[in-house]
Amino acid sequence: MGNAIGKTNKNAKIMKIDGEIYKIKIPATAMDVLKDYPSDYVLLESKVVKRYGIRAPELRPEEELKPGKIYFLINMPKFPEPITTRAKSLPHTSCAKERLESLMSREKSSIVAGSGSGPVRVKMRLPRAEIEKLMEGSKDEAEAVDRIVDFCLQNSSKCGEVGFRD
Question: Residues with Cβ < 8 Å from 58, sequence gap 6 or more?
């Protein structure tokens, strides 16, 4: 049997995006590598990149580099956090009942104002004679719809139950 004299690797390898590799002596931290580069550069461990891909977590500046490991030094742009329209549009009210009432009133106002994004189905109880009377004096369908909706909003007891659907 032979004896083997091994050399312990006291360096970590840093690979840039262009393929350039350089070695850094251990002990060293991620900050020691990143201090010479702009703030949008990050250091990633190669095994973590292999596992998670672009979602790999970057090394914190105070994190120690390990001997024999390969690290990637890449320019990672910082993306702004998207603001959802839901978070912007809903008012912060105290209870669920108030939020529901707020949403219902918004829905009704958008339907009445005609500012909806598409066709809306409205179910209401209205005597046929009233509908015919309202339609006779109107020029077109849009005016007839406006007159019927106005009539129902003014005389909610005559219209009975009104329901809104998308």
Answer: 42, 43, 44, 76
